[in-house]
Structure formats: structure tokens, C-alpha cells
Amino acid sequence: MTVYLLAGGGTAGHVNPMLAIARRLRLHDSSCEILMLGTAEGLEARLVPEAGFELLTIAKVPFPRRPNWAAVNFVPRWYRAVRDVVALIRERKVDVVIGVGGYAAAPAYSAARSAKVPLVIHEANARPGLANRLGARWTRFVGVAIEGTPLRHARLVGMPLRAEFEKSVTDSQRQAAKKSFGFDPTKPVVVVTGGSLGARRINETIAAIAPDFERAGVQILHLTGRQKSMMDSVVRQSPDDVLKNTSYVALEYCDRMRDALASADLIVSRAGASTVCEIAALGLPAVFVPYPVGNGEQRFNAVPLVNAGAAVLVADADFTPDWVRYNVLSLVQDSTRLRNMARLSSTCGIRDGAERMCALIGEARAEARSARTLG
Fold this sequence. Notes:
- The protein is an alpha/beta fold.
- The chain has 2 domains: about 5-160 and about 350-375, Rossmann fold; about 165-350, Rossmann fold.
- About 45% of the residues lie in helices and about 15% in strands.
- The chain is built from 13 helices and 13 strands.
- The protein has helices at about 10-30, 45-50, 70-90, 105-115, 130-135, 170-180, 200-215, 255-260, 275-280, 295-310, 320-330, 335-350, 355-375, and strands spanning about 5, 35-40, 55, 95-100, 120-125, 140-145, 155, 190-195, 220-225, 250, 265-270, 285-290, 310-315.
- α9 (about 275-280) crosses α12.
- It is elongated and about 70 Å long.
- The protein starts with a strand and ends with a helix.
């Protein structure tokens, strides 16, 4: 029986690819044992058990960014975390470690090196995180989701996706999805999302221009996010409200994201790596409004689709009601341009990222077996 240890987490951007890889490994070999390694504070603490996988936790050991008391304590905490993972690898007879970045990943990478088990890494963002930059020094088996990601030994595999995102959207599926949200299937729909917590700039701007879109015959599905302040300036609706035909539907959360995206003639969204890759896999045109805080990776995530002509990029500060009226409204009314963007998006989409990662994992295991035989 093969034992896999998947390490990483913190955010949905780390956890969802990790779960997609795990599901595909189990599909290939139902007898395999899959262990997940994360922290008690990360999103994996909820999502991994909900998905039916065993979660093991270690202490959160963030890399120090400046000289302070945390930096002084970093070294002993780091060695303790690595020692704990080495013990876990040996106790559970782990055959391969697979990491996706995040707080739990770096100690796992170091432990895999110490325990001499194969290491495979997946990087979701166009700008790799510190953990994966470290781990890529210790393995040749590095898969990336975004073309051009500057990571040692990087191989383009795409994003490991949930099964429902592995096929592009057909016209009949789009019409059915529109109807399921109460929309007129003969009119265009713009789907707006700022992620699970929402995006204030996007929410306020869309709420301001909604009447203009309604007058133009354009419908909006607005996924505002769950932070209370995100709903302050938009119409509150329950899921039952979507049963009536309306031109503007605002929901804090949607548990049918494939259907939500499938209903779109155009997507307006942040540019998280998973979102960008899902949009491309479904073959949809998009307007990306990258998150303006952090190391700027969201803008770089969107660049391949923008360069291909499948998406438009706008800075958060420039995403104003006037900009949307002039650019988005004219775009969603240009069916010829939208069809061309959708076609280009589909050519950029990688729909078998989970399968490609499994092949990379298999390659790493085969090399390790060969080395043991020769040794």
C-alpha cells in the first residue's frame, strides 16, 4: 500500500489544489493511504476533515521577516517541527511527500529530505511563495499552475481542479445555469466575485452601476463574500430569492460555483490563481481586478490570459463606476468579442492539472524505486 503525505494549507488557494490531488490519487488507487499535514489555524483544519481525509497538525512556524523576538525563537521551533514530521514519515511509512506551499509545507520539505523520501511540489501562483522556493532546491519534481512561474525545476502542469471544473461550458449548460439563478437565458449575465470574503472596491462599484446594467438589459450575479461590511451597500437576498426572475441577484455565498461561473457571459473577478485557472478551464472571458495588497502575485496570475486576449486587466484603484460603464458594459454587449475571448480562454485552460500532478508524483516514485534497486 502506498502512503502519501500531502503538506500545506493556510488558505483555500493552498487547500483546494491539495484536496484535488488527493482525490485523484485515491481515484487511481483506492487502497492508498492519504495523510494531510497542516496547522490548526489554517483553513485546512475545517476543509480537510470535511473532505474525508485525515489531518495531522504541526505548530505554525512562519519565517521571520525582520529581526525580533520571533526571529530568535525561529530556529529551535523550526527544528522541532522538522523533527516531528520526520518522526511522522517514519511512523506512518510515508512513501512520498507532496507539498503545495503554506506554513506546514516548509518543515515537511526539510523532513522529506532528511528522511530520504521523494518530494513533489505544486506551486499555484505566478510568484512562488517562500516555502516552495526553498523546497524546489531539494527536488526536480516541481509542477506549476501558471506558465512562466520563476521556480527552479518548474514544469507546467496547470492547477489541480475539482472534477466539475475539468470541462468547458457548453451553450446549453450556460442557458440552464442562467435559469437556475432566475435569469432570462436570452440576455447576457455578468458574474461578479471577489472571493469568499469579498472585495470592497468591486462590491461598491458593482452596486453603484447595477441600475445602468439593468436599463441596458444586462443581468448581474453578484457574489459579495461573507464579511458583514461587504454587504453594506448591496441588496441582500437569500438563496430562495433567486427563484424569481430578476436582473440583479446578490448572494453572500454560493455553494454552486461551477453553475455560477457557467451562467456567465463575462466574469468580473479577483485574480487568485485557482479562480484564474478555473475560468480558463471553463473557457470564459474575464475582467480581472487583482488584489492590490501583498506581493502582486494576482496581477501576474492573470497575465497569460490577458496576453492571449482572453481577459482584461484593471487595477483595483481604477475599477470605478465610470470605468465599468465605459468598458464592461460595452464589452458584455459585444457578443462577437465575447465569443472570441471565450475561445481564447478555452485554449489557455489546462483541465487535467490533477492528472498531470499524479503523473509527476509517479515519476518521482519510479526514480526513487530505481535508485533503491541500483543502491
